[in-house]
Amino acid sequence: MHALEEKGNAKMATEYHRIKLCDIVPHKWLHYLQADRAWTSEDMFLLLAQEISRNQDYAAFFRQNNKGAYLIMDNGAFEGETVDLEEVIHAANGVGADEIVVPDSIGDVKKSLASYYDFIDNKQRLWQGNHMVILQGKSVDEAIEHFYLLHDIWKSMPESMLKRVILGVPKHFGARRMEVVRRLITLPSHVNQVKILPPIHLLGYASGNDWLIGQQDWFLQHIRSMDTSACAIWAYEGDHTTTLNPLYAAPKRPDDFFNLPVPDLLQRVEFFKYRKKLRNNMAAL
To answer: Does pTM surpass 0.90?
Structure first.
């Protein structure tokens, strides 16, 4: 498992005892949730660069109120609004984010790899924090092929930069996502070389299969974190039926998720209840 430990002015990926939960939260919920409980280094948030650009209150909140939470600036590909690299970096610098998600193209290895080469060759100097590269492909085998291509890039990286690489595994692999992770972990090392496997971040809570396979101990040391908007959705919709058992499906994010109205007291209580249950499930894997 991996966590985030401050070293000097940077937060680095290091070993940790459980998967970290990375929250995705509607704009108008942020002030109320922070008022209910102060954020700590245990908290992690995924922000969308396009939301930072279009909503000044959202950006201002994180500039003024982030007192320790780890912030990841996403490129918006999953939402269908991929933001270019310069805008992702600009948004990240504007709120003091710790990590960016390098622009990618869902399911397309060639385009995603070209974007990563652009970052490494031309834009790396613009960003000194951690960066996440997303594993792509339309099948498990394509994802593994993409990994080998990325591995060739990482082999020539200086150690100082390699320590700042995070490997994202997206939810579009569905029930096969943990098969992708299993393959990554069990790939043999090349002759006379050490296999490079950065800390893994799961993009989105895809299915109960994530929990069932993830309960195996040998997964734990490789998965750093998982992002989800599920806790806010469950709280907003008043879904009191789930016990967050391993078979419970992830909820569909409403189209207007980021503009949901101010939460009432019950919704705030429910948010932290679901968040605690989900974090406990992740800790128990």
So the answer is: no
Spatial distance between the Cα atoms of 274 and 271, rounded to a whole number of angstroms: 5
Pick the CATH number of 2-279 from 3.20.20.105, 3.40.50.2300, 3.40.50.12780, 3.40.50.720: 3.20.20.105
pLDDT digit string (tens) for 21-40?
899 999 989 888 777 666 77
Which residues touch 29 (CB under 8 Å, ≥6 apart)? 232, 260, 262, 263, 268, 271
Q: From the CB of residue 46, how many other CB atoms can be counted at a distance below 10 Å?
A: 24
Residue 110 CA: distances (Å) to CA of 77, 201, 236 = 15, 21, 39
Q: Which residues contact 97 (CB under 8 A, 6 or more apart)?
A: 47, 71, 72, 73, 91, 129
